[in-house]
Amino acid sequence: MEKPEFFVTPGYGEKLRNALHYSQAVKIGNRIETSGQGGWDDSFQFPQSVEEEIAQAFRNVEATLATAGASWEHVVHVNSYHVGGFPPEVNDTMVKMFCNYIPNHAPIWTQLGVAALGLPAMRIEIRVTAVIF
Prior knowledge:
The chain has helices at 12-20, 50-67, 88-101; strands at residues 5-7, 25-28, 31-34, 37-38, 75-83, 108-114, 124-131. With 133 residues, it is of the alpha+beta class. The longest helix has 18 residues, at 50-67. 32% of the residues are buried.
């Protein structure tokens, strides 16, 4: 078995590593797992609209994958966690982001409604599994 290699996203990931003692991604062999990525910026501020928060979460997943040598094209599994239910703009934006970031395949996806996430202002958190092939 290959030894796990842990990665910390520059900026917000370094802050979370120092404050909460966790990494943003782990790579074992050709498989990468990410921790949940919210729609925050490096100061943990959130956009006003849920659509922009989802778009920022996708950008944060992209940055985290890059630290481990992968990209959205390697993503095979997505879990998304949502506060506030699933009004049309949530699924519309998720699908738009999938088509933008992963145009050549459709990953498996589990979508969950939750009461709360790690920061009070969070409405979305995305966690992915990627396989470098």
